[in-house]
Amino acid sequence: PRILAMVFDLTVIILLVICTQIAGAKIISEQYPVEKAANATAGEARTAAAKDLSAASKSLKAAEDKASKATGDQKAAAQAEVKKREEAEQSAKRADKRAAEELTKTQEALRGPTTAVLVASSLLALLYLVPSTARTGRTLGKRMRGVKVLRSNGEALTWWPAFSRYLLPVAIATALFYSPPGLLLALGSVLWWLWDPNRQGSHDRISKTIVVSAPVARLRLGRR
User: Fold this and answer.
1) In angstroms, rounded to a whole number, what is the distance separating the alpha carbons of residues 203 and 164?
2) Taking a C-beta distance cutoff of 8 angstroms, is the pair 102, 66 a contact?
3) Could you give the dihedral angle defined by the CA atoms of residues 176, 98, 42 and 118, in that order, rounded to the nearest 10 degrees?
4) Residue 219 lies in a domain
5) What pTM was computed for the model?
6) Does residue 223 belong to any structural domain of this protein?
7) Do residues 203 and 166 lie in contact, with contact meaning Cβ atoms separated by under 8 Å?
8) What digits encode the pLDDT tens for the residues 155-179?
9) Are residues 139 and 84 in the same domain?
């Protein structure tokens, strides 16, 4: 039941994050059109510069290989070709550096709104997880699967333990911009309970909480 509850809650959180990211990208495009266009142009220029640099490096390598095998009158021409390719590579490196600096500059212009979208995603995740856990010890997934979070001493949760319980995984995912590696690391910190003798994940140990089986009582209708 605990695994299924986690899968349900994680699915809800991922959907919240995706919706927030989509809405945020739309708002940024509408509110910062100039900066967005400049960033896209700079990104394309950086990609092109990187390709040019790669091609120049390959050409230099080929020229060096040819020069190493050249003999007699061909050697001088091959060395001249190597020098020419070296100059081309240096020029490509300078162009790539300029493109990288321009891309960084345009990204800085969008850092504020991009960070705001990231923070909004994390706040929505915490709003889904913390209030219901603080009040009842259950998220929607835990309620559906009949499990509950308590303090390690068996007492009901309060707001701070509920918040601190989810702070670690959400912080990891936020720090890595909700990328697949970030989500996997966050999930790994939670799934540690599978190997823990007390069945506690890393977030449980930090917040001093445990997850117990506590099926929700169902109303039964019948004749009186």
Assistant:
1) 8
2) no
3) 20
4) no
5) 0.77
6) no
7) yes
8) 999 999 999 999 999 999 999 888 8
9) no
